[in-house]
Amino acid sequence: MAPCGLCSLALPPKTSGFNQGGPKTVSLLALNQLEKTIAGRVLFKKVQLPLESGKRYGLVGANGSGKSTLLRILAGQEEASSGDVTSRSGTTIGFLEQDFSPWLEWPILDVAMTGQPEAFEALRALDSAEHGDQQLDEAAYAKHQDVLASTDGYTLAPRAAQILEGLGIPAQDHNNALHTLSGGYRLRVLLAKTLIGNPDVLLLDEPTNHLDLMAIHWLENFLSQYRGCLLLVSHDHTFLLRVCSDTLDVDYETITHYPGDYNYFLSRKAGDRETREKEIAKREKEIAHREAFISRFKAKASKARQAQSRVKQVEKIKIEPLPQSSRRAPNFSFAAGHTSGKEILRVKNLCKSFNDKSVIQDLSIQLRRGTRLAVVGPNGVGKSTFINCLVNELEPSAGSFEWGHNVQWGHYSQDPLKALKKSADNLLDWLWQKWQTKVKPWCAPFWAKCFFHRMM
Questions:
Q1: Is residue 48 in some structural domain?
Q2: Could you report the per-residue pLDDT of 391-405, keeping only the tens digit for each?
Q3: Which of 273, 331, 352, 404: disulfide with 341, CB 3.0–4.6 Å?
């Protein structure tokens, strides 16, 4: 299938590509006793849950708890261990792809437009006929026209362009091949492809990972107008709060529905846990009281019958142990090796250009000890470039910078595996090369500080 440009066939945009259903909710998908086990580890089991139109579900849980696995099961890309997923007749599902390799030579706009494949194919056929590349008989021509009429296909190109621009890809780049974009922007194009598809069920796994603040804000507004069934995985709690109406918690080897936003979920889950803990404590106290009576009077003939009755009562009291949460939180501790001077960094008239494009122009700044500075702005304006200049990854085009007295800096890059990719060593040997002045036993207690402790 060859890429093509189809903008000439498009009419001005009318409305968002999302279906505008009414307030009535309809169950589009149903999870029926769904279970997933990987390598003997249960992610979730006996899940009985309807997923309804008009609901925007935030899917939350620890890393590795099964959130992405659930999305793949719903998208039909992975099998459940038992149980099944049923769908309402005619329900369409959109799932955010992560593999952009098949589309690298395609024009960016065309990639986004393939999110509505029937309309895209109809537009392509009519475009080919218009340019004499293929012949269409009257029936075929009418069929393509019907497809475009039923799918609002004539507005497909402007709608795709609108979404791409909202995600930070300017119109002047839309006819360039996908491979001209960086990895993060290529994923934005795949996100646009998913959003343009008008699915009844939309499955998004960490859609904000490669978005800047402006694109995240645009996506928040876009998804808030969605009237289908949305399942959204994100660790951005603010994003979840602004977008989602309901919460699905993947924990305790099950999936629990909380009919409210993320704050409601946090409060309700903590309250439910506290209630169960109090109930267990009450039953344990009751058992202890009866066992004390048994221990005290079991040897007395006058109380033997009562003691035996208490034994039977204790045997009937069942306490279901609380399951352990899969959530863990990192516990990091970074202590400065020594105290630096009061002035941490001085930057004077710093400039950086790439060929004829100026990214940083005459930047001057002074930082003092204790300062916490956020570097914000749209993608491509020079945030990472500025940091890379300070850590000697890039050479400034002009200007200067100077670290303060006794300052030692650490750098966590946008590509944290970059340093490891250049080395064939294992992690311990790599650390040893970086800090040869430290003894190897130092690593063990350091890693111990990073071990995860249980939450909830």
A1: no
A2: 998 999 999 999 999
A3: 404
